[in-house]
Every structure is written in structure tokens, then in C-alpha cells.
Write a structure and sequence with these properties.
CATH class: Mainly Beta
Strand content: 35-45%
Oligomer: single chain
Strand order of the largest sheet: 2-1-3
Radius of gyration: 11 Å
Bound molecules: zinc ion
CATH topology: Rubrerythrin, domain 2
Order of helices and strands: EEEEHE
CATH architecture: Single Sheet
Length: 63
């Protein structure tokens, strides 16, 4: 089973990737908790808060 990892730079959560599909960083961690699903990055206040650029799943807490 693929492990979900969160990007330390932009919080984007990806499955089975070596690099973050959102920002290209390879600083990924399995130690994260909680997430939000961003469907429309342009219209969400939360995406502006964390500077999310694309739709997807974002970790709330990264250890
Ligand atoms: Zn990233």
C-alpha cells in the first residue's frame, strides 16, 4: 500500500511520489496529521492562508 506523504514546503499530500507534485520539493514527510481537501484554490480563504496553488489534499499539521 502506498504511503501518503506531506510536503514540508507547501503541505501538499501525495501518494507514492518522490517529489511534491505541487511545488517540486523532495522534502516530504510521513509524519503529518489532519488534512483539508482543496477543490477550488482560487476561491478558498484557506488556500490563500497556506498559499496553495493547486487543488488537492493538504496537511494541517506537519511534524
Ligand atoms: Zn510542495
Amino acid at each position: 500500500m502506498a504511503v501518503e506523504k506531506a510536503c514540508r514546503r507547501c503541505r501538499y499530500v501525495s501518494t507514492g511520489a518522490d517529489k511534491c507534485p505541487a511545488c517540486g520539493s523532495d522534502d516530504l514527510t510521513e509524519n503529518w496529521a489532519g488534512f483539508v481537501i482543496i477543490i477550488n484554490p482560487d476561491k478558498s480563504e484557506f488556500t490563500q492562508l497556506i498559499e496553495a496553488k493547486m487543488a488537492g489534499k493538504y496537511a494541517l499539521r506537519i511534524k
